[in-house]
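Limitations

Structures in this collection are predictions, not experimental determinations, and the ligand pose is part of the prediction. Treat each record accordingly. The example that follows, with iron/sulfur cluster as the small molecule, is included so readers can see exactly what is and is not provided: the inputs are given verbatim, and the output is the predicted complex.
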Amino acid sequence: MLAEATATAASAAPHKVLKVGGYTPFTATDYPGKLAAVVFVQGCPWRCGYCHNPHLQSRTTDSPVPWAAVLARLCRRVGLIDAVVFSGGEPTMDPGLEEAICAVRAMGFSVGLHTAGMYPQRLAAVLPLVDWVGMDIKASAHGYDAITGVAHSDAPAFASAAQVLASGVAYEFRTTLHPTLQGPAQVRALAQQLHAMGVRHYALQQFRSTGCNDGALCSAPSAARLDAPLLAEMDALFDTFSYRHD
Ligand code: SF4
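Predicted complex:
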């Protein structure tokens, strides 16, 4: 909790206008079953080597894409898309997230949120305003810090995961796989842990080098696939289970 308070203070902006690093006007893959726009919020306190959006990790003084311009574009999408997804970066890092969510809800859009859960208090504040959460779970507790580059990063992530489950909001938990980070035994242990927590909707995503700045991860063999018996085990643990790979 102290770590969260410290990180929150350090990242606080003097105003509550969302800092947007990018915008996708149309996607059919970022919110299950809905056509959506995606707002990529600037900033993330973690440094996962496999991050697809490392250019969004730092927050700049000015918003690269003015939030007012995003709202104007969304206004023209009313009736054409169903939802707006706040992604990143880490959307809950931004003190303007709640106001931004309220603004797009007022336009009639459903709201999706992608989060890695490092700010459980901020997540709790916006969960009642959100219709669907894509919850990133990186590893079992002991493997977290090696992926995020931040000490004790598992604690807020699992606290946030519990909040998502308790909230009743629709969700998908997802984990990115790279063979140098997690072998089959770790994948199985994490899936069993999530099942025991009450997770019912889970996806595994094979690492993709697109956007990744980590040369070691990109050059290491990453095509190792989970075998059919392990996938069958995973499938039996969850109501819905997906394994995404090229
Ligand atoms: S938590 Fe997500 S946005 Fe942040 S560094 Fe990791 S992969 Fe990138």
